[in-house]
């Protein structure tokens, strides 16, 4: 009987070992999956991040501060980044060693005009797209003085490495503090927030600034007040100046990140620059639009949802671009995966290509409207030299920034809307011909019979 009972005991012990091995393997795989999912895209800086909030706001400021929900998978488009300390050292050396890094520069047109951007004709604007002859001066704004204080101007010129820029004009957003910053990042990255008089009054109303000094600081952000008296009547157009002419406002910076005021950055900017620009060897990184691929799709949505008040002017803009050669996106445009970006987050290496692109795009927005997505492909496709562009997936965008609605609850000064819709149309080309864009539309809809 002893011999008969020893075999089942041995069998049971092997079964127990296999069971334990299976259990531990399952636990290990589950733990690995849970940890690796946080590394699938971006994480906050893993080594010595800033743990405490950078600034505490009063409860009355920005009561409507709810984020837009996202439902996309966080692992469908993996992007990895290197160790924080390695990235910090690399960018420090790269930005600091000016003797080894000769940064090409554009020559900018000077002069005094009634318009900040010069208001050039269509033919004149497009003529600057060909920049193979580097000695040509390019129109790039500042034909009128940018109205900021001398102390702010000096501080901007001293920013000689990385700058993060945002703007609030019209007091329709809350100033949001960046999260996930490495402990040394505030020493090497400048954060500048441009605001107008109306926004300044709102900050004063909530006791976020002191009027006893002309230099304002809220958390990580240095606040720069811009007088709107000598700029554009439209606050959105004034916001375009720091968004696309950042290389002129910060002439000594090597990299910049534009962050729309509706976003909260949740990843260290040095990691973003390294992963999306340096590693990819591009001039600029920007998210592709989550829904649209063709410029005309964005234009029709702009008219349908009244994102711009003058629908007739939108039609004129699109017909101007079609007449000048704008084509819908196709595989022939690769490596560009789309014609429509989500321009809420822009990461740039300051150089000839990205600076020229920014200048040309700004000129188009002054000519028509501040909807930068409408002119994006038109400018990009005409440029020579070509822009090296990383249009990353929207899943990446959703992992590096939290998006909020433009719904800051007004508790202070009232902001009045000057613009009114001239023609509320659900179709950009309703009740009128669109002969100049007919070929574009047929190609976009797959009805063109051209060979």
From TrEMBL:
It comes from Ilex paraguariensis. Residues 112-406 form the TOD1/MUCI70 glycosyltransferase-like domain. The lineage of its organism: Eukaryota, Viridiplantae, Streptophyta, Embryophyta, Tracheophyta. It holds the Pfam family TOD1_MUCI70. This is TOD1/MUCI70 glycosyltransferase-like domain-containing protein.
